[in-house]
């Protein structure tokens, strides 16, 4: 976590998408995630900005990439995702008690996901999703850490004000 925060501190003028990608790459490495995706929320539409597949999901007839991996979709179709976009996090597996998120996850071909989101200083909503397979570490305990890192990436990316001399 310390490394990610230090890296974010060096990206003062970087676009939010790039800052979130730094979090995604480091979090994916930590979890041994199979894929990640940074998306921006435009009104009621989630727009995939930067998807990255590290290991393709396995299906019964061999590896496959999800057809809609980079497609836009309505936020209203995914209530848990809509809540995450407001500044929270959640994890899901194929055995979670959320049929909407289970169905969405099954459509990707992956076995688990952890999602965190929030707003940038210009009030644009963002989401970071990490997807897991059989090689991925348990994602449930990572949701809070991912949320903290996403919030740091979304925070005001500017140089610190010079300290005022006292005296």
From the N-terminal CA to the C-terminal CA, the straight-line distance is 37 Å
Helix-strand sequence: HHEEEEEHEHEEH
- What's the Cα radius of gyration? 17 Å
CATH architecture: 2-Layer Sandwich
Structure description:
The protein is of the alpha+beta class. It has one domain: GAF domain (Beta-Lactamase), CATH 3.30.450. The chain is built from five helices and eight strands. The strands form two sheets. Strands 5-2-1-8-7-6 form a six-stranded antiparallel sheet, with helices on both faces. β7 (112-119) and β8 (125-132) form a beta hairpin. The longest helix has 16 residues, at 16-31. The protein is globular.
Describe this protein with a few key phrases.
alpha+beta; 167 residues; two-stranded antiparallel ribbon; Beta-Lactamase; globular; 8 strands; 5 helices
Task: Annotate the secondary structure layout.
Layout: H1 2-10, H2 16-31, E1 35-42, E2 45-53, E3 58-59, E4 62-63, E5 73-74, H3 79-85, E6 89-93, H4 99-108, E7 112-119, E8 125-132, H5 143-154
Antiparallel strand pairs: 1-2, 1-8, 2-5, 3-4, 6-7, 7-8
Offer a quick outline of the entry:
This protein is an alpha+beta fold. The chain has helices at residues 2-10, 16-31, 79-85, 99-108, 143-154; strands spanning 35-42, 45-53, 58-59, 62-63, 73-74, 89-93, 112-119, 125-132.
